[in-house]
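Q: Start with the shorter request: fold the first protein.
A: Done. Sequence, then structure:
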Amino acid sequence: MENTYQNLIEQTFNFPQEGFHVTDNELYFNDIPLLDIIKKYGTPLKITYLPKIGHQIQKAKRLFNVAMAKVDYKGTYTYCYCTKSSHFSFVLEEVLKNDVHLETSSAYDIHIIKDLYKRGLMDKNRFIVCNGFKRKPYQSLVTEMANDGFNIVPVLDNKTEIDYYSKFVKVPKMKIGIRIASEEEPNFQFYTSRLGIRHSEIVQYYKEKIENNPKFELKMLHFFINTGIKDTIYYWTELAKCLKVYLELKRICPTLDSLNIGGGMPIKTSLGFEYDYEYMIEEIISQIKNFCDNHEIAEPNIFTEFGSFTVSESGAALYSVVDVKTQNDRELWYMIDSSFITTLPDTWGINQRFILLAINHWDKEYQPINLGGMTCDSMDYYNTEAHANNVYLPKISPTEKEPLYLGFFHTGAYQESLGGYGGIQHCLIPAPKHVLIDRNEEGEITTRLFAKEQSYKSMLKTLGY
């Protein structure tokens, strides 16, 4: 049979590829037999393959270090994990095994770091870069950590933030950074980011608030754009603007020695994904190096804040097709045993695409279908209207002996927090089981249940019953 699902995938993409292959008509994810995991734990199911987190971190470290060596770059490279991408304990524990630092965005992040420190997983020498608009509880915790000797660097998001630190910080020479308010892409709904301080005001602000204040030491300039690190005129233009601000500050601020280029490294959301990580990183480092050489200043230490890049490719969401519905003469629905709105909110919130593959029945014919979630919301679907490509899956009947299982892959960032993990979700659809997958010293697969499927009792308690 030529028009099998396996033939479709192999003819459309370069398949098999890193992280995915098929054996005996069953999909393997990072060499994990997914059908075995499903038979053990059932669906719906979230999984996290922990070794992938360390793999991503080491990949970025290697690429940056090689890029720096190629141009004899004198500055250092520091990898920060952006905690808001996934706050789970198992993620932070895995991240910290890889000699990395942390970036926070809220007061509660600091409480997580305190817990990690108490457990001996975090030491005071690791950088804690604090971003975001900071209300007093956040400012208070930043100040407390600084006074307690932690290597914390609040990145000033507005002009008044420093006033709190000036009043309550007791240690001399607290390290601080300044975030540049970057310009948005021309097609964005507004011109300038609401975060940070305007390019044209930063130098004067430094002179007025920081230069002669013995409590502070400006160490970092922070640069980030929403669309991420991409080979576009927009990205290179914004980077050039940032370097000009760095130059102006460096000439009057000898303590400034670090440039934070933020996050936004793309992740693989399609089997046809093409992104030259090596080229982009080498080009960034080369441009910064050339700029500094031309203006006779020392190259800055480079910081990055990779969140999605760190954790996305470790995650997957697995479902069963529980019904097949023909609603008219051309629309066929496969109904899954969960909800896209609750388990993969980005699919309907921002039309995010993930890698979607059948887990079994690769030897069957394929057909175009719509995927429907269990809620009563008309937006609880995944199909061609929201995404660039048709959704094709193996052809099955309602009486199929073995159900069709399917997976959405590289879903490890943001989905739980955006979906309200542990709380109340649309139509009271429960959060699915969550299984952690690891390998022991012999390389054998190990699994453990991190969370059971959410119970009705926990929901009723949250609702006050």
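Q: Next, the second protein, separately.
A: Sequence, then structure:
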Amino acid sequence: MPAPKKVVLAYSGGLDTSIILKWLQTEYGCEVVTFTADLGQGEELEPARAKAEMMGATGIYIEDLREEFVRDFVFPMFRANALYEGLYLLGTSIARPLISKRLIEIAAETGADAIAHGATGKGNDQVRFELAAYALNPEIKVIAPWREWDLTSRTKLIDFAEKNQIPIAKDKRGEAPFSVDANLLHTSSEGKVLEDPAVEAPDYVYQRTVNPEDAPNEPEFIEVGFEKGDAVSINGQAMSPATILTRLNELGGKHGIGRLDLVEGRFVGMKSRGIYETPGGTILIEAHRGIEQITLDRGAAHLKDEMMPKYAELIYNGFWFSPEREMLQALIDESQKHVTGTVRLKLYKGLARTVGRWSDHSLYSESHVTFEDDAGAYDQKDAAGFIQLQALRLKLIAMRNRRVGK
């Protein structure tokens, strides 16, 4: 592959991506444009601008993508109630296609012929970044320094930084206790003190949630309004997608909701242990299932649940821009046409539970299910024929088995 002339780097301003910036300049002699996305990670991003300027970046992009992130990526995923391996709300996975999308767009805007990222060769993110990039621009060059350079230890990284006058935060001189990724949907912590899955994670790992044992002793009740499968209000107040998730994060964090200790199967083949905090997302998926309970037909709901693991796996593995994910999304979105109404939830000591739901689009008929007089809404005698027809094949199998010996 010929050396790139201009590279757009996914840049956090931290030590690793600052080293990558300098390494690209020295290794390839190319221009480097930095892109820093505000996805709600909760960090001040202006220092990244100053650092990129100091290090000679020829272009600097810092963008607030919180609304686009929640509206166009998180909410579509939550319409599917997506959980990877039955537990993980895909907080890191769903952010990568948006970052790749902007890297490709900025490359086109600036005339860059390559993009670069700081994901390691052991993880899922390299796959997610690159599959998304190639889906959007099959000619783009992708540089993954962790798969190329010989800076294979923290000591070598620090030495490189010192030799190239790259500022090093004092707490970076020693081994970091664990690695953190964060955005508006979640925080993810991995490595070091978390690498032994037999040992409970220390409480200081958690950043967004109080320990459920220390959460308020009184429950809090909230109401989340939905339109066509997406949350649109909290307690009757209309809000934008990112504002809703921000507020749910505050509520969930206060009540210790959304903690997950998971050993997951990475796409690259190994298992890894992660500590995830998804306070707002945990409330949101509970609320979404709550409103679907009364607005979504049984057949549609069960079909969605059958497809959900495949949909979640596609996102986890980096196939957001694949035709199969888009096909599933079209089917999921069709199912959400009547998923409109309000859910009341109880938040208490690490749990979010639906305690009420109502909708003008409801399929729930009290006259059909009541234990009192239903005024002729349902004829219980009809059940006898229904059962006989359902039992017919079972009877025939039993008769055959009795005849020939099972």
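Q: Describe the second briefly.
A: The chain is about 40% helix and 20% strand. The chain has two domains: 6-66+91-176, 180-296+338-358.
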